[in-house]
Amino acid sequence: MKKKMIFSEFFRNNGIVMGSLLFGLVSFWLIFLVILPQISMLDFSFRYNLPPAEQGGPKDVYTLSNYEHLLYGSDSTHQTYNTVDLMVFVRTIIAAMFVTVFNILLCYPMAYFLGQSRGSGFVRLLVVLLIIPYWINEILRAFALKIIFGDSGLLNEVLMFLHLTPQPIDFIRADIALYAGLGYAYILLMLFPMYNVIESLDRNQIEAARDMGASWIRIHRRIVIPHAKPGIASGSTMVFMLSAGALAAPQILGGPSSLWFTQLVYQWFNDSLNWQQGAAYAIVLLISTISIVLVMMKIFRVNMGDIGK
Amino acid sequence: MTTGVAVDLENVWITFGDFVAVREANVHINGGDFFSFLGPSGCGKTTILRAVSGFLDPSQGNILIGGNNMAGIGPNKRPTALIFQNLALFPLMKIWENISFSMEVAGASAAERRKRADELLDMIALDGQGDKLPSELSGGQKQRVAIARALCANPDVLLLDEPLSALDLKLRQHMRTELREIQQRVGITFIYITHDQGEALTMSDNVAVMKAGIIDQIDTGHTIYDSPSTPFVASFVGENNVFRGKIKEIKGEQALVSTNRSGDLLARITPTQLGKMNVGDDAMMFIRPEALALGKADAASHTTITANVVNEEFEGNVFSVFLEGGGGKSIKMATPNLGQAKISTTGKDLSLHYDANNAVVMPTGELASE
Amino acid sequence: MKSLNFARIALGAYLLIFFSYLLGPLVVMSMTAFNSASFPSVSPWACFTFEWYEVLWNDTAIRDGIYYSVIIGLGTVALSVSMGLAASIVLTQVWPRIRSTYYTLIIAPILVPGVVLGISTLVFWDRLGTFLGASDGSAVYSLFHNGIFLTILGQSAFIASYCMLVFVARLQRFDPGLTEAALDLGATHTQAFRKILLPFMRPAIASAAVLAFLASFENYNTTTFTIVKYKTLTTVLAQKVRLGINPSISSLAFIIILLTIFGALVFEAVARNKARKEQIKLGRTEEKKGGILPAFMQGNPAAFGFVLLSFIVIVMVGTAQKYDPSQCKIDVREAKKAEAAARMKELREQRLIQDQSDARQGPDIFGAPKTEPEAGQGSGTGAFGNVFDPGNLSDEKAPKSGTGAFGGVFDPTNLDETAPSE
Description:
The complex is a heterotrimer of chains A (309), B (370) and C (422). With 309 residues, chain A is mostly helical. Chain A folds into two domains: 1-43; 83-306, MetI-like (MetI-like fold, Orthogonal Bundle), CATH 1.10.3720.10. Helices cover 72% and strands 0% of the residues of chain A. In chain A, helix 1 (2-14) packs across helix 2, helix 3 (65-72) crosses helix 14 and helix 4 crosses helix 11 (216-244). In chain C, helix 2 (51-57) crosses helix 12 and helix 7 crosses helix 9. The longest helix of chain C has 36 residues, at 326-361. By secondary structure, chain C is mostly helical. Chain C starts with a helix and ends with a helix.
């Protein structure tokens, strides 16, 4: 009854044509592009990888085997754990967290500097300079880092020229290139939300606190950071989710011995052609990353509404 | 000149969830009337206007325009045009496009629209300004454009939602006259929403005074001012001194009220309460500040009040004297400035006289809070 | 005073580090586009060259990639802008109690990893096709398995959220009274939308469209799953970068960087000009006349920068037509040959000595001579020695240049031929 009233009011406010158009577009998006595909993938992850002829047949039943594979590998007795894949998973999550923290620390001073200096020409120039790498393709940015971190890349040449190292350092095998690349790829998604909130902080608040004798550390801890919290949360969420879900940077900059979890998903799909297994891994990635974000939001008392500001 | 179209509200209730915004409104508005709804903010007057214009449906009851029931007819199909509180001029359209918007949506050619817009611009004395943007006009000019835009739709009823509230005092007074003139020229029904009693009284043929969703009184401005039917109307419209007491005696249309602070006072029973009041009833008596005049103490006449002067204010056209009544409440008296230097002396007693016909008595009720 | 100076130095150092981290890689990459060495590098600088632009121009895979990227970009813009706009309008009207749930739902696609969106789109439409009983070759089947169609849907799923955020910001400043006024004046809801809300939203629609197009153009994670048999620019690039490439990619990057700078300058110049005109209108600034610069560049460094940059690019393109680095390349090749010959000779001598010592000391340090030649090759090829770094996922190893360590290495077309075909 109540629902009916809401609907009729919606159409009353928008007219039949516009109302249907708005309603239709939003429903198409949410139902056909977001909800149903996710459900479909979830359903898929509980099925066997069968040849087309057997699909829908008696063998097409639900199974947990795709998830068991992540835990135990191909060991059907469940005696040994699938340490390779599990390690990749754990490493991906921890490294994504590390990248997020690295970005917070690197961006906070810059966000504060830009946000609190009055819009001088210099600051405008800096902001324009910041935006430029933002529009460069993610692949190309990873490629640029590869040029620098490669065996005979610029960094090694410089280090060797300065006699700081006798031999080229394998930055790629040491995953340094990967972490630098992930930090590099999403740094602006951390910077701009922070910058936006810090910009909205009234300078007088800082001056008042300073006037009352607060130290710089205290000013940041008690005034700037609490004010910037939604921006930090928004930036951290984006950076964490994008790093954990990154594919290009690990493919280009990752070491030969260490994979990123998304690469496993990619391999199941494109190399092994086992979509069901890939879907299961994707579900694990989705659920674990979202849960981590939600837990973090709870811990730091941030609302969903702050994200995207 | 058209004769105008009548608007009727028949037993209209408007509720939002548990909140009753309008309770049992029955109003008849004559065709061609300038009709005002007057009340404090939140009394439901804007809700009534939105119901008439079709932006919301009454929960119960009917709204008739020219005798036709408007239920289920959208705002774009009703013969009404609304002037919004913030005017809602389209900021990206030129003035002439704003004015002729109703013709544009009806599919008129640009030349036709331009012609009509120029006519209306002439009428509102803004000729030659058609190619400006709304942001380039002054407040009063925007006001007139909003009126022209509404009139361009040839509505049977023009609805105005406190359109003058954003203007400064001088302009507001000027626009009152102008609005009244426009209304008389076009001859259509105007329904005007305001919390400013000055606007309502100067412009309207009839006024409905509202309080918390209830219409207390519908009458001409004059009647409402002189013969309010409830304590709320008496205290909301204009200034009034209130005396609480009990009815001691009823003599025809007059009653003797024994007040708590000023003894027995004589007053006219307000017309709607004639024959309904009895001796011993709790009552409220109202005397306007300007109905009080300096006089001699004469307890037997029951039309004099003696009180202690607390303060005197000079307001240019009038002197206002505040006196301490017996109950501790202050009484205000207003006397025109006829060249006197001073009316009273602070701390001294002053005797005030009034005509019993200028005082009204009615049953106790809620007062308008200041 | 001293601490203030220290703070200034610290701030300067920090800014320097931050911007080197952000811009340094791009500068280095741009420079490699002008080095004739066949692997993108700057340090052993061979010859200044424009040849990589020619290589880029002749690369059909990249050209096809750009073509499909543009088509997908336009489709994504159309779909995600309209869905985002609808979602933001609904957000302003939605019943307060379901408002936060609804907001979570329309913001969530931003947070879902692109890989997951790609997979779920692929799986869902594949199964929907099967469910609808489409068999191979039918119209529905080919549509639901069409990489372009799927990529537009997969990308729009989250790009619509970005658009929605842009629209919500603008809608907050919209007075719903304007729509009511239009309705009151007899407009239909569609007319009110078209004549009132849409013009108001136009700037936001423009920026959302640009945002959506760029997001689509550079998307990799979702596209790599949904694109199926086609290739967009990004997936082509990813493949090239993974498999080892020549600096034509750098030249593409340099072009993109230039375009970005142009875009930023134009945007800034227009904004400044607008602000200045506003100021002049309000009488706060005088219109300057009779300066050396044309009016639109007055007090507008961005416009000045734009003109300067255009001039530089024109000069560069002009130079590229005339410039011929072949002599330099011959010199470099000769130098390399000489160097390599010397190195070979050295190695041979070393080996001789070692062989002698091995003969004397026994075979226990046999490893040394075995690794030496490899190292020799590595240093000889220098610049491109690590193109084929195993540090990528590629299952196929890029074939090593067949003509030996140096021959033909500097001929980019040669390398292109030997690059894995896709």
